């Protein structure tokens, strides 16, 4: 009975750690380098993924200085089941299930930047969009399935499930409009999201976001339209 009570209290504590809020027109602000400041996101869908699209806004001037994590989706199967990462002098790194590919870019504009990344298991095709413009399609992890029960982190890259952060990979700046679907959005749908549409995201929804803030991360009004 005592063990059951203890387990129940742990579950209650876990669920209470996540707030739920309409984050429209706001952003998470990461004002300084840190190995302990981040935001955890709780996915609406806990199912394994055979396709997905992630879209978000970032605003940072860190890209000329060093590499940093943009979106880290770890499972107990692998710490980089989904990874979006800025790799200084190379461009955007996108990973699924561990393996990664690079979409070359010399810089991120020093302005709010919109990113969308999609992948499907059936073909392995990856699409990567920056400010509504697509990069050349590439292929990654055909036949793979992204595991369930994810630890989703903004502001840090996970080298283990939910942890093992490196201050030199931490994000400094602002992140907003984080949405995720369990399908590959069409080019027309990507454009709709880029200009402010939502299309009912069913994995992460910025308008009904469940999140937990750790350390020095603040919620403020967006600096972009």
Attribute tags:
single chain, 225 residues, mainly beta, 8-stranded antiparallel sheet, 16 strands, globular, disordered N terminus
Describe, in plain words, how this protein is organized in 3D:
- This protein has helices spanning 2-16, 187-194, and strands spanning 19-21, 26-30, 38-41, 51-59, 68-74, 82-87, 91-96, 100-104, 113-120, 125-130, 133-134, 138-139, 151-154, 173-181, 209-214, 218-221.
- It is mostly beta strands.
- An eight-stranded antiparallel β-sheet has the order 1-15-3-13-5-6-7-8, with no helix packed on it.
- It starts with a helix and ends with a strand.
- Residues 1-16 have low confidence and may be disordered.
């Amino acid at each position: 009975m005592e063990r059951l009570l203890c387990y129940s209290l742990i579950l209650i504590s876990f669920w209470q750690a996540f707030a739920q809020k309409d984050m429209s027109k706001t952003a998470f602000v990461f004002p300084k380098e840190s190995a302990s400041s981040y935001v955890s996101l709780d996915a609406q869908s806990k199912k394994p993924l055979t396709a997905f699209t992630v879209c978000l806004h970032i605003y940072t001037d860190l890209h000329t200085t060093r590499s940093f994590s943009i979106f880290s989706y770890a499972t107990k199967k692998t710490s980089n089941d989904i990874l979006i990462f800025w790799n200084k002098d190379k461009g955007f790194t996108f990973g699924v299930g561990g393996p990664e590919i690079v979409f070359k870019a010399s810089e991120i504009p020093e302005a709010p930047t919109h990113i969308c990344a999609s992948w499907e298991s059936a073909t392995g095709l990856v699409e990567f969009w920056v400010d509504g413009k697509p990069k050349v399609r590439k292929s990654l992890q055909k036949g793979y399935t992204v595991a369930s029960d994810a630890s989703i982190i903004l502001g840090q890259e996970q080298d283990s499930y939910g942890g093992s952060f490196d201050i030199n990979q931490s994000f400094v700046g602002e992140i907003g409009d984080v949405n995720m679907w369990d399908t590959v959005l069409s080019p027309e749908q990507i454009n709709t999201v880029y200009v402010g549409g939502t299309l009912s995201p069913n994995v992460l929804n910025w308008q009904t976001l469940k999140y937990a803030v750790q350390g020095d991360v603040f919620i403020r009004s967006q600096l972009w339209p």
